[in-house]
Design the sequence.
């Protein structure tokens, strides 16, 4: 059976998780984890919060456990299987009796889970994620020799109770490739591999992990995980899809934060309230670029709707990214499954309500760009800009007098980007003498100021929450989510499910940049006592290493999410994370040094039969390289990857066919120099309406919303890109050039190609096959030897071995 | 075309099995692997669903739909309804009169304006006696096959968001296009061709470009593929220059040999097998896709029917002909853009209405009529749903002090549908006597979407995809009725 899977199999996986959940090692029934998700999925549509047919609302404790149904029966009588009508109906074989009446019956294991719950007393406890986590000691195990870190105890004890044994340890060659990609997104060089293989130090692997964690490429790899979650993009989408100036500083901020091992609580606070910190820095201001990353319509049909859509983007992203909560449903009504009333959604809106919109169409700077230049420079700019602004009104007044006399097409032009050109060419002809004189004088003055402005040193601007509204606006619950239908007023408050103390706000000093509400929220999210924050992040770190989280729905810890496969481990990891000062590198280390992480990915029939989805981690899951890893690796193996870090985005080369899809082909895209084009993919421009094909074809995410986990699709468009695309063909030739430089013989070149691309020495069969291909191409297809080697390199870059990690 | 994502899928088992589709024909994997007992060696999930599934394998809808395919003729820019299919006799003789009328367009909200009398004469056609303006003399002969939707409404009169609305049901970007929903729901009948094809105007793409055929939060597998009517039809379909088909075959054989060795120790990973198969499929696409866009085998008579013999209509005519060929070959959703880029390169007639609409109607009238007639004579119209329209209509009043240009209008406009089980010679809904707003049976764009899905065999309120904590639907969370009058 496959290791990972199609969407379909994801479904199987959900169900099988439920199945495993029904009989966890502790054999304690957990209503929130084992039972409620089944009820929510299969029964709520008729017997839930909206409809309670026959008097049964399965979302309501009283209705299920105590109330009499319309029929006079009781849905559940704790401990009494006979008297519980619910059980009789879900297990019935009579199709007129069986529930649910439509679709397939519940699966046997689902019926078993519910039955088991009733039998054990039908305890109605809260959803696992909404309770204060209980931290248990790592369990004792029989096979102590397998234990390298406490993580292994949690994993092994579950494996043992399921009668499974962990896979053998992967060999060093596999480990260095796995670890290098996990931490840096790049393949190890043959020299790195060789050194690691012969390293006699028993701590060789530990030192490898430390070296990789310390490398600057670590930040580039792990920042990308975070950028997926915060819907990072560098343009606004919609008609103009304009660039977001200086958005790249936020990307650099994230890379630096990871490389500096910035404590996660600080990382959270800076992004949510870096502009409200008493000791704010350039960096903390840049961090608030977080709020400015979303889509923004510069010409909304309904401005109020657009305003609330923008706030929804912030609430929804913040809920998912930091708290693992999907709050979206509660915009229009109380959440049907999770305990999130609509008032809580608007309570969150109230924290963010004073943030200005991203921009206005005529001023795309004031709200979102903070000047972080030296103060003296800032002052000079301010003076000149005030002077220029003062000229605008009088000049426009004269312009409009002239425009009013122009032809309709010209009037139309005056409203668009051609305005300035039009005015320069034609305005004079439509003005009275007095106006013309005055206009000429004003223009000259403006030119003078503009020249002075141009002579100033460049400003440093940061995309950020540059401006807040003077007062936080009042926030109302919007009936059915319509911004035109305000209901009750709400104050900023934490969602009730957290059972948290009411927030306390600093007194708002007049003239201050903002109210401090967001700082209050940020500190609460980043507090050790928050029930979700640390678990959500610990889960993401786990996901980064194993390809899936302990909770497989990392943005959704709610009841529609997937329950954790190892809840105790997750709680323990989260506590360890917080106790270690919220630092991520020690957590990476702890995970990577475990026996669990070091297992081989090899299958074995017994385990495949018992746990085909590897829910219990009996082996390491293989994974395909990510989009960035594919492109970066191609550049790395031919030795041309430009490792320069940071700075403005670069433009990968796009073909004319790709640009032809734009309404103005080539708009918003430029050429970068060859060496710039060879930089890592994280620096490639993320333009919402123009995805880079080599990245999007390998599942680079759509950046309009938070991406919790990337898809891994396999489709022929990938093969076409890799076989026929310009990039791969050019790079294959350059790869061959490198081989020609490094070796004189065809055999030597083939060997070197395998070593560089696949991180292992070539086997004899590899060499034979390579020479055979080169031979056939030259002998039978009229291809010269150099070109044949180019094509051989293309083959190597297309192999599954290149694209997959063990 | 395997997709994996470890997320939740809150679907009923029925939907879940439905998604699993009819089997494992995709990618030719069965034939590749069955012989050596690959499948019999696989562990199978408890409910008997085999793990490997091609998301684009043909699937069944919720029921048997009348339509197998959709051709969406996107009149980008927004054609004027009162100058094309929405006959407004009350406006005749009113040219230049200033009247009170509420409008909302790119020029903002207005309460009065100067009437621009429709610039073309209307006549009645067919047995149904439908009114059509002189802009469409050819299409007029097809009215008995057409259902006109005269009371369409949309949420935005601004191109960017209105395009997204017409294509994805939302004014915000990030949601899948309707073609992606169809791809997701039905897969493709021909694995050698994409399931969702977009063909652009030679002047350029529409505003927001690829956002209009994006798969949004769904996997990229379901996104639209741009096909070109000239040169290599699909991006990177063409082999590199100097590489013959035979040489490429040699190359692929070598690749397969490397991959087989790698697979031997990892036979339980079906993604690896799928990736091997995807290269074979790509190779097959290289042979088949060019054939689909090669019209040399079409008779002169057929070519003329689409207007290929006239310079004015040849370009759009060729794309209409290709649309028929793609549908014949199992492509589910074809979207043709009539008009591209900006301003008068599309139907966006802000300046000179007559010049603009004469041009755009002139180059599309005969090809569209040809498409309808050709599909009909081949017996394909019954199973092919044709949809015509723009992202909105236009205002009855002038945009500027001078000239005939009309601003955008999302309060009321006309679209039409034909074939695929749609009743011909029908009209539904009406705008007021000026065409300013829908007054009788107003129909939001979502209702059109619901109708398209229904004709393809879906309950539009049940076709869903779990994302961001919600069962997302093309028609939104609120119950949306298809336009029952026309089906």
Sequence:
């Amino acid at each position: 059976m496959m290791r990972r899977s199609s969407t379909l199999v994801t479904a199987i996986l959900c169900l099988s998780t439920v199945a495993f959940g029904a009989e966890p090692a502790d054999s304690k029934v957990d209503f929130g984890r084992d039972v409620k998700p089944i009820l929510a999925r299969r029964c709520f549509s008729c017997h839930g919060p909206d409809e309670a047919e026959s008097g049964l609302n399965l979302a309501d404790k009283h209705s299920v456990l105590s109330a009499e149904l319309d029929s006079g029966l009781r849905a559940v009588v704790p401990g009494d299987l006979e008297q519980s009508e619910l059980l009789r109906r879900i297990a019935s074989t009579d199709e007129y009796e069986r529930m649910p009446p439509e679709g397939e019956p519940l699966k046997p294991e689902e019926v078993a889970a519910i039955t088991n719950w009733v039998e054990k007393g039908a305890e109605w406890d809260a959803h696992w994620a909404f309770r204060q986590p209980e931290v248990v000691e790592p369990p004792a195990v029989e096979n102590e020799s397998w234990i390298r870190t406490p993580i292994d105890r949690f994993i092994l004890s579950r494996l043992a109770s399921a009668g499974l044994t962990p896979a053998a340890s992967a060999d060093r060659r596999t480990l260095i490739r796995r670890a290098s990609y996990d931490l840096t997104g790049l393949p190890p060089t043959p020299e790195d591999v060789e050194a690691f293989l012969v390293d006699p130090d028993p701590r060789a692997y530990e030192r490898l992990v430390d070296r990789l964690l310390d490398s600057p490429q670590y930040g580039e790899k792990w920042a990308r995980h975070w950028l997926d979650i915060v819907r990072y993009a560098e343009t606004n989408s919609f008609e103009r899809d304009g660039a977001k100036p200086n958005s790249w500083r936020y990307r650099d901020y994230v890379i630096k934060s990871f490389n500096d091992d910035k404590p996660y609580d600080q990382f959270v606070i800076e992004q949510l309230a870096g502009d409200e910190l008493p000791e704010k820095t350039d960096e903390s201001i840049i961090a608030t670029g977080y709020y400015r990353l979303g889509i923004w319509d510069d010409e909304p049909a309904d401005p109020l709707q657009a305003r609330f859509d923008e706030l929804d983007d912030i609430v929804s992203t913040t809920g998912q990214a930091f708290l693992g909560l999907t709050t979206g449903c509660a915009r229009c009504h109380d959440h049907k499954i999770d305990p999130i009333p609509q008032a809580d959604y608007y309570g969150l809106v109230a924290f963010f309500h004073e943030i200005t919109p991203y921009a206005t169409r005529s001023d795309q700077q004031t709200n979102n760009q903070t000047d972080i230049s030296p103060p003296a420079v800032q002052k000079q700019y301010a003076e000149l800009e005030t002077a220029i602004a003062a000229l605008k009104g009088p000049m426009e007044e004269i312009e409009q007098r002239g425009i009013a006399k122009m032809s309709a097409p010209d009037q139309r032009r005056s409203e668009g980007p051609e305005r300035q050109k039009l005015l320069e060419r034609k305005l004079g002809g439509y003005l009275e003498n007095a106006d013309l004189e005055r206009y000429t004088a004003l223009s000259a003055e403006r030119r003078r100021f503009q020249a002075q402005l141009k002579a100033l040193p460049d400003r440093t601007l940061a995309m950020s929450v540059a401006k807040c509204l003077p007062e936080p606006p009042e926030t109302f619950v919007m009936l059915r989510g319509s911004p035109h239908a305000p209901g009750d007023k709400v104050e900023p408050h934490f969602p009730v499910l957290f059972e948290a103390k009411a927030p306390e706000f600093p007194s708002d000093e007049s003239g201050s940049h903002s109210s401090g509400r967001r700082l209050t929220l940020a500190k609460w999210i980043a507090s050790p006592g928050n029930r979700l924050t640390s678990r959500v992040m610990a889960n993401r770190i786990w996901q980064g290493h194993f390809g899936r989280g302990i909770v497989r729905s990392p943005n959704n810890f709610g009841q529609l999410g997937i329950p954790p496969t190892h809840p105790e481990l997750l709680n323990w990891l989260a506590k360890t994370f917080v106790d270690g000062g919220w630092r991520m590198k020690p957590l990476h280390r702890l995970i990577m040094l475990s026996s669990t992480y070091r297992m081989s990915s090899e299958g074995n029939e017994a385990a495949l039969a018992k746990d085909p989805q590897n829910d219990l981690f009996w082996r390491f899951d293989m994974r395909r390289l990510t989009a960035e890893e594919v492109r970066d690796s191609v550049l790395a193996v031919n030795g041309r990857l430009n490792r320069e870090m940071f700075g403005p985005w670069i433009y990968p080369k796009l073909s004319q066919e790709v640009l032809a899809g734009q309404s103005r082909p080539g708009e918003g895209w430029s050429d970068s120099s060859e060496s710039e084009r060879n930089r890592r993919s994280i620096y490639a421009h993320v333009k919402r309406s123009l995805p880079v094909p080599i990245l999007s074809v390998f599942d680079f995410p759509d950046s309009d919303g938070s991406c919790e986990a990337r898809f891994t699709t396999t489709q022929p468009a990938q093969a076409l890109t890799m076989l026929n695309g310009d990039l791969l063909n050019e790079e294959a030739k350059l790869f061959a050039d490198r081989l020609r430089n490094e070796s004189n013989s065809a055999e030597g070149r083939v060997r070197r190609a395998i070593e560089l691309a696949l991180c292992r020495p070539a086997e004899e069969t590899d060499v034979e096959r390579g020479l055979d291909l080169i031979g056939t191409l030259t002998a039978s297809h009229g291809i010269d030897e150099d070109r044949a080697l180019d094509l051989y390199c293309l083959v190597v870059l297309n192999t599954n071995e290149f694209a997959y990690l063990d | 075309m395997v997709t994996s994502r470890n997320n939740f899928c809150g679907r009923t088992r029925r939907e879940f099995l439905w998604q699993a589709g009819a089997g494992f024909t995709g990618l030719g994997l069965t034939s590749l692997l069955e012989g050596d007992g690959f499948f019999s060696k696989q562990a199978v999930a408890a409910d008997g669903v085999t793990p490997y599934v091609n998301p684009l394998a043909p699937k069944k809808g919720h029921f048997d739909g009348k339509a197998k395919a959709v051709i969406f003729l996107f009149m980008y820019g927004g054609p004027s309804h009162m100058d094309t299919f929405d006959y407004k006799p009350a406006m005749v003789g009113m040219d230049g009169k200033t009247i009170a009328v509420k409008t909302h367009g790119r020029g903002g909200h207005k309460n009065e304006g100067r009437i621009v009398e429709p610039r073309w004469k209307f006549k009645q056609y067919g047995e149904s006696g439908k009114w059509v303006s002189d802009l469409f003399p050819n299409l007029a002969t097809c009215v008995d096959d057409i259902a006109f939707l005269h009371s369409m409404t949309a949420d935005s009169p601004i191109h960017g968001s209105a395009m997204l609305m017409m294509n994805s049901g939302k004014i915000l970007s990030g949601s899948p296009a309707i073609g992606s929903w169809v791809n997701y729901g039905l897969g493709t009948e021909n694995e050698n061709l994409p399931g969702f094809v977009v063909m652009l105007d030679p002047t350029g793409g529409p505003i927001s470009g690829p956002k209009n055929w994006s798969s949004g939060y769904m996997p990229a597998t379901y996104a639209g593929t741009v096909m070109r009517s000239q040169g290599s039809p699909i991006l990177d379909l063409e082999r590199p220059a100097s590489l013959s088909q035979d040489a490429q075959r040699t190359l692929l054989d070598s690749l397969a040999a490397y991959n087989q060795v790698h697979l031997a120790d990892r036979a339980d990973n079906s993604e690896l097998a799928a990736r091997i198969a995807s290269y074979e499929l790509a190779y097959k696409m290289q042979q088949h896709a060019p054939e689909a866009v090669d019209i040399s085998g079409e008779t002169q008579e057929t070519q003329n029917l689409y207007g290929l013999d006239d310079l004015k209509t040849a370009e759009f005519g060729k794309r209409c002909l290709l649309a028929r060929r793609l549908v014949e070959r199992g492509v589910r959703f074809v979207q043709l853009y009539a008009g591209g880029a900006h301003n008068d390169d599309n139907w966006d007639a802000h300046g000179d209405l007559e010049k603009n609409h004469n041009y755009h109607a002139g180059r599309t009238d005969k090809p569209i009529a040809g498409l309808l007639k050709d599909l009909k004579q081949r017996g394909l119209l019954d199973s092919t749903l044709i949809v015509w329209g723009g992202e909105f209509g236009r205002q009855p009043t002038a945009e500027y002090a001078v000239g005939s240009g009309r601003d955008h209008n999302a309060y009321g406009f006309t679209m039409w549908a034909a074939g695929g089980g749609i009743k011909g010679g029908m009209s539904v809904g009406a705008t007021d006597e000026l065409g300013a707003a829908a007054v009788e049976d107003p129909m939001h764009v979502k209702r059109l979407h619901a109708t398209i899905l229904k004709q393809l065999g879906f309950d539009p309120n049940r076709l869903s995809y779990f994302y961001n904590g919600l069962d997302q639907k093309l028609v939104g969370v609120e119950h949306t009725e298809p336009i029952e009058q026309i089906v």
Notes: Confidence is low (pLDDT under 50) at residues 1-52 of chain B.
